[in-house]
Design brief:
about 160 residues, alpha/beta, 6 helices, globular
């Protein structure tokens, strides 16, 4: 999966659209629709990869976390995070659980509670990315991961919680 937009993968929801939600049922339906779509991506019977550049925020990061692999373009614009928490909005498409499974509880809690975005090297270090490559190599590295990627990584959870 990749975006054709020059400024990034997905910058998340248009917060103005939330003003149109008038009832809890409307909000619930919106969240369930997003969960279903992202759940289908996670359940694909074949490997999937998110080729990431620029903004990978909110629902964009949640979608990327549903993929088997994530490869990022190593430049100053790559920014990955869940900034909606700063507005009091819960990442409702499954990103909270997927982030814990992907990068572990401590790194995921940091990502979810502070709402700060991670740059490429930070995202690679915590395990949010499987690879960080020159922007020109993004598509080729994504293709390589699909063809010869290692088994999907799953963070170990502490037993003393």
């Amino acid at each position: 999966m990749r975006s054709g937009k020059p400024n990034g993968f997905i910058a998340g929801a248009d917060i103005k659209e939330f003003q149109d939600i008038r009832t809890p049922e409307q909000g619930y339906a919106l969240v369930r629709a997003g969960q279903a779509i992202i759940g289908h991506i996670e359940a694909l019977p074949c490997p999937s990869v998110a080729a990431l550049h620029g903004f990978v925020l909110g629902g964009g990061l949640e979608l990327a976390l549903a993929c088997s692999y994530r490869v990022g373009a190593d430049d100053a614009t790559l920014s990955m995070g869940l900034p909606e928490v700063l507005l009091g909005i819960h990442p409702g498409f499954g990103g909270t659980a997927r982030s814990v499974r992907t990068i572990g509880i401590r790194a995921a809690a940091e990502l979810m509670l502070r709402g700060r975005a991670l740059r490429g090297a930070q995202a690679l270090k915590v395990g949010l990315l499987d690879a960080l490559v020159a922007p020109a190599d993004l598509a080729e590295r994504a293709k390589q991961l699909l063809q010869h990627g290692p088994p999907r990584k799953v963070a170990t959870l502490p037993t003393d919680c």
